[in-house]
Amino acid sequence: MNDSLFSVGNQFVVVYDNLKALDIHGELAIYSGEKWKAHLRGDYFIYTVGAETHPWHQPFIKFAGGGQYSLKKKIIISSDIFLIGKRWAKSNVPVEDVVAQEDGSYQFELKPIVDFNLKIEYRYNKRLSGWVQFDNMLAVKYQRWSGYRAQQFLGMMGVTYAF
After folding, report:
1. pTM value?
2. pLDDT tens across 92-140, in order?
3. d(CA 57, CA 87)
4. Cβ–Cβ under 8 Å, residues 112 and 86
């Protein structure tokens, strides 16, 4: 069997624990007919862990907001922004500037995430439209999960056709 396929860096280990989570959630949405709409959402989490030190990769706060504007039902501009607070991560391989714990793992905080996205769509008729979308417009370097960087800036375009 080829050992290069089974290195530490390409495996996941499932961690079981008795995690309890309380989510305090608030949401506000405003609609003005078909012309425009907006929403704002916030979550605050309180975790209780069993044997583990932290609730791995779970944020303590999350905020999301967005809106959409329709210009004569032809041009639709929508955007959203979200913030995910600090999260604790655990690694079994050495992490730069992190001291190993007694169990040999490396525990560290991931920085908060701020992401802003924009989409513009042109509807030629009810069946045919074209769109362009930009994700992570602030080009922020972040990791949603430890060791897995998000795309720094992403632009996409496409056409939709309904049968």
Report:
1. 0.76
2. 888 888 888 888 888 999 999 999 999 999 999 989 999 999 998 888 8
3. 5
4. yes
